[in-house]
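Title: Prediction job returns without error message
Component: structure pipeline
Severity: low
Priority: P3
Assignee: unassigned

Description:
Job completed but the reporter wants confirmation the result is attached to the right record. Sequence as submitted:
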Amino acid sequence: KNNISFNFLDHRGKRETVPFTCSISLRKHQEQVIQVARKKEFGVIVAPPGSGKTVMAIKIIAEKQQPALIIVHRKQLLEQWVDRIEAFLGIPRKDIGKIGQGKGKVGKQVTVAMIQSLSKKMATNEAADLSSHFGILIVDECHHIPAKTFQETISKFNSHCQYGLTATPFRKYSDGKLIFTQLGEVIAEIQPQQIDPLKRARVVIRNTGLEVPFNAKVDLFETLSKILVHDTARNKLILNDVAKELHKGNKAVIITERREHIQTLDQFLKQSYETVTLSGEDSEKHRKEKWKLLETGNFQVVITTGQFFGEGTDLQNVSRLFLVYPFSFKGKLIQYIGRVQRSEVAPVIYDYRDLKIDYLNKLFLKRNKYYRNLEKQATLFDNPEDEPPLKDVIQVNRRIKVPMEQLDFQYGVIAFAYTDPKINRQLEFEIENDYIRPEFEVLKPYFSKVIGSEKVEVEIYAEIENGQLVAQLANCPELERINREIIESVKSMFGGIKRAKMEASP
């Protein structure tokens, strides 16, 4: 457009060809991805849990015939990769390179590396040899790339082929674009319905009776969290649902985000059922022992946190999922639901909606938008066997401009109200941002200067069913990109103007 001349320099390097023997038989949805990878040397592959991302990546490695580096962020993932490489490529375990867990060996054909250990190695005199050794780079769960360690480490490699694997090519606050800066655009995306056979999940929404006064502007969430995990009536509702499913012979996973909640639920369930708990309190030895127990199937219910159940978890025949702690991030839902879709029977997800606490209910409404978008059955009744009545559904889906002064800055949340002319009803929306605080209200004019406008563009979605708000979501890249650096810059701007005014006053 502006007739700017440029030179394109390609510093990628192909290495000496290495032979692979691959014993993988691909499914239809996997074959489509491999065909794309044959033509593309960079890019992100998006595939839901259960689609076989590891299998597809191993097939790509075998076809490229280049020494491969696979980067992971957890020990559990490293061990799973080593198992799959040994099984599908026939490479003896002792010949597979491992960087992490006290190991620093580079394999002739394939090396699996923990990002933390690899980062340290790339800061030593071994960096040059490492960066020039690999012809193909695979980043597993690449939605973690926005983390500084991932960015700095991956940028030091000049492999001829680089691919990212993820079920969720985004992270909160819109920094997912960094994934594409490092690895390129999405080159292949598998939809859940493409996976054969697809186990369509049923979602059961249980309304809790928890009622606690909570103001996000002044009250600490941790106080509310402690009340929630120790509430007798709420826990009894959860335990009764779990017991009912276990009596039917189903295996279950309960996901919370607090260790004390794991302990409370385990104390009751342990009396009658084979339970396994997983949390950050487990030693490495105990964690390995528990995973061996889970892999053999000698359990009825697992009680854990999302950190240990989300990414890279391979548990077969778990068909009941209980989401007992509130959250809103869509990426978590994709991971959790995908894990139970590997079962031989149709999965059921129980979600506990704290209807009487506005802050927690808004988190649910964000989750429920995803449930409904997935075309899952979202049963909004306490009895999952109830037949839902004929539905009168109204959807609000539009982009609006919201003046900065109408935004309400709370702890970790930016709230605003909007009256939609279509339904003549005021809707309250929230946009999550962990950096926002109520005291930043005074900085709004300076945020406007940074953004370049006194109004922000927000994409809103709401769904009203039979007069009841059942799902809502708001997204605003301009507000979501406000981070610590921007806030410090705005504070500095505000402080400078304030000092100038004081110096100018008589």
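Comment from assignee: result matches the submitted record. The CA atoms of residues 260 and 442 lie 38 Å apart.
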